[in-house]
Structures are given as C-alpha cells and as structure tokens.
Write a structure and sequence with these properties.
Blueprint lengths: L2 H8 L3 H29 L8 H6 L1 H14 L3 E7 L5 E13 L7 E14 L4 E15 L11 E16 L2 E14 L6 E12 L2
Antiparallel strand pairs: 1-2, 2-3, 3-4, 4-5, 5-6, 6-7
Length: 202
C-alpha cells in the first residue's frame, strides 16, 4: 500500500459529515421533545388566579377603561421662542392615548415633557439638542392579569449637527440616548444610537 492511499483513508469523508450532522440534529430534536413534553405536562391551562371570578368581572373592567378613555383628553402644547435670528428654544408637553396591541394591554396613556434648542452657527451649519422625559401607563388588557399593569418612565437626550453645503444636499450626524425604567424589570433598557445621514432634496 502506498503512502498516498493511507492518507486518503484517514481523511474526513462525506459520510463522516453526514452522520455528524444527523447525530447533532437528533440530539437537538430530543432535547426539544423533552422541553415540549414538560411544558405541556405541567401547564394547567389557567392564565390567572381565580379565573372564574375574574372572568365574571372582566366586562366591567373593559367598560371602566372605555369610560376613562372617553373622558380623557389628548393634545400637544408647544411653545417656541427665538431669542435671536440664529437660535430657537422649544418647550413642549404631550398627553395622548397611543395604540399598543399586546395580550397585556391595548393602549397606553402617554405624558411627555420636552425641551429642544437649535442654533444656526452659519448659513450652512446648524446644531441642535433635545431632552425629554415621559411616562407611559399601559391599560386595556386583553386577558385578565395577575400582576399590576405595566408602567414605565423614560428619559431621552440627543444632539445633532447638520451641514448643508448646497441647497439640495444635507449631511446630518448625531448621537442619542434613552433610558427606560419600568415596574417590571424585563422592560428596562438603555439605548445608545449614533447616526450619520445624507439627504438629497429635489
């Protein structure tokens, strides 16, 4: 037997790859099967403590939410002040009912306060900054809940720089952050975004 024949016999063949892949898929399928079986075997079917009693009063809860929505008011208040020809200051407040479709809620009440400023350094260069603080109160659950409705507050801040070399082109760069705190830790998060955009106008 030559040295070349021995080298060919010891390498990985297509059969090795096939059986390894099939073995891996069999292990994954078996583990998934165990998880599915345990999930089905241990699920009682109840989505709430005392589901019958809560179900009897569920229509009353829906009617109360609808009455509250009808009595509620929505709107924006914005105040803009231009101290000079180059700078502006905006103050705003928003109260609204925003659609949000999930099993735990169908809308939320939003209250937000914001302040923004813009400064034109030259005819082609502008800088801006924005800060806002808001609260969301989620309501209108689709299924009865065993815990308190979700409530959260958030803070957003951002800065941007806009350069317009010609009337039909705009280059914009910026950075923004958002921190959200909820009464359920699963919905807490911190977000950081840096962006760069080029816009052509015609």
């Amino acid at each position: 037997m030559s040295a070349d024949t021995e080298k060919k016999g010891k390498g990985i063949t297509g059969w090795h790859v096939l059986w390894t892949l099939l073995g891996f898929l069999a292990v994954v399928s078996a583990v998934n099967g165990v998880f599915i079986y345990n999930a089905i075997a241990t699920y009682s079917g109840d989505v709430a403590v005392e589901p019958y009693r809560k179900g009897l009063h569920y229509n009353k809860r829906i009617e109360a939410d609808e009455r509250q929505t009808q009595l509620g008011w929505v709107g924006d208040i914005d105040l803009a002040y231009a101290a000079t020809g180059k700078g502006t200051l905006n103050l705003g407040y928003k109260h609204g009912l925003e659609a949000f479709q999930q099993a735990t809620s169908s809308y939320y009440v939003l209250d937000e306060v914001n302040v923004a400023t813009r400064w034109a350094a030259t005819n082609t260069l502008q800088a801006g900054a924005r800060l806002s603080y808001g609260k969301r109160d989620y309501r209108g659950e689709i299924v009865p809940l065993t815990t308190a409705q979700r409530r959260e507050s958030y803070t957003r801040a951002g800065v941007d720089l806009t350069y317009t070399p010609v009337r039909w082109a705009e280059l914009k760069a910026g950075y923004s952050i958002e921190n959200r705190n909820a009464n359920d830790d699963r919905f807490d998060y911190k977000d950081r975004i840096a962006f760069l955009s080029l816009t052509a106008r015609y």
